[in-house]
Amino acid sequence: MYDVHINGDLVATSLSRGELNQWLLDVDKEINNINIKTQFRRGFNFVSQNQDDFLSFIYGLINIELKFNFGTNFIEILRNEFY
Q1: At CA 16, angle to CA 76 and CA 23, rounded to 5?
Q2: What span, in angstroms and rounded, lies between the C-alpha atoms of 4 and 76?
Q3: 3 pLDDT exceeds 90?
Q4: Contact in structure between 27 and 37 (CB atoms under 8 Å)
Q5: How many CA atoms within 13 Å lie on the side-chain side of 13?
Q6: Residue 46 to residues 12, 37, 41, 61, 83, Cα–Cα distance (Å)
Q7: How many CA atoms, within 13 angstroms, populate the side-chain half-sphere of residue 32?
Q8: Secondary structure (3-state) at 80
Q9: Following DSSP, what letter does each residue of 19-69 receive, concatenated?
C-alpha cells in the first residue's frame, strides 16, 4: 500500500499498487500543458512523450517510492508501513 503527500499534506492513503497507478495516470491525463506534463513525467525519470509508453512505464514500476519537485509542489509517494 502507498501514501501520497503533496507539500507535506497527505492527499491519498493506503492506495493499492493498481490504485496508485491509476491516480498517477489520472494526474498525467489532466495536465494539458506539454511542458508541465514533461516535467511531471521526469519526476519518474521518464522522458518519452508517448502516452502508451508512459502507461507501460507506470505499470512496470516495482516497489515505487519517489520524492520529486513538480512545479512549486513537492510530491512524495511512500510505502505505507502498516500494510
Answers
A1: 60
A2: 6
A3: yes
A4: no
A5: 5
A6: 23, 11, 5, 11, 28
A7: 0
A8: coil
A9: HHHHHHHHHHHH---HHHHHHHHHTTT-----HHHHHHHHHH--S--EEEE
Give the integer Cα–Cα distance in Å for 62 and 30: 24
CA 66 to chain centre: 8
Residue with cell 508501513: 81
Are 4 and 22 spatial neighbours (Cβ–Cβ below 8 Å)? no
pLDDT tens readout for residues 28-80: 888 888 888 888 888 888 877 676 788 888 888 766 778 888 878 898 999 88
Whats the size of the chain, residue-wise?
83
Return all residues near 37 (Cβ < 8 A) that are at least 6 apart: 28, 31
Structure confidence at residue 81 (pLDDT): 75
Residue with cell 508541465: 36
Place of cell 509517494: 77
